Amino acid sequence: MIDFPHFFHRILDTLFILRSHRGLGHARRLISSLLLETSPNGLVGLSEPVSAGMLAAATKVLAASEAPEARRRLWTVDQEGDGERKNLWWSAPTLAEERGVDLERILKPSQSK
């Protein structure tokens, strides 16, 4: 985790989750924690390129958030070159298409039996 005071309070550069521990919600919990621990006006960045799995986890967190302002606080950040940044919530459809992620399937409420 990098402190980047000019734009963001926190930037998550890399997260590796063992294959045996994937799909258990660890990435979602981390993103939620970062958003909760950062001041209400603070921004949280995910370093580009954002993987398909991280995109899915972040989008789920933002879609499920009871605090709509969280959607304006999570960004993707290109730390190389010009330091371009994009709001993740607004960029998610384009990023999902580029990475072959089916956002409709991800955001669809699970059917309980």
Describe the structure.
37% of the residues lie in helices and 17% in strands. By secondary structure, the chain is of the alpha/beta class. It has a domain at 26-80 and 90-107. A five-stranded mixed sheet has the order 1-2-3-4-5. The protein is globular. The mean pLDDT is 83.
The total of helices stands at: 4
The end-to-end distance, rounded to whole angstroms, is 40 Å
Strand content: 15-25%
Q: What does the radius of gyration come to?
A: 14 Å
Class from helix and strand fractions: alpha/beta
Strand order of the largest sheet: 1-2-3-4-5
The unreliable regions are: none
Mean pLDDT: 83
Largest sheet: 5 strands, mixed
Total E-strand runs: 5
Estimated helix fraction:
25-40%
Form type = globular
What string gives the helices and strands in order?
Answer: EEHEHEEHH
Which SSEs are present, and which pair or pack?
Layout: E1 2-4, E2 8-12, H1 26-37, E3 44-47, H2 52-64, E4 74-77, E5 85-87, H3 88-99, H4 103-107
Parallel strand pairs: 2-3, 3-4
Antiparallel strand pairs: 1-2, 4-5
Helix pairs in contact: 1-2, 2-3
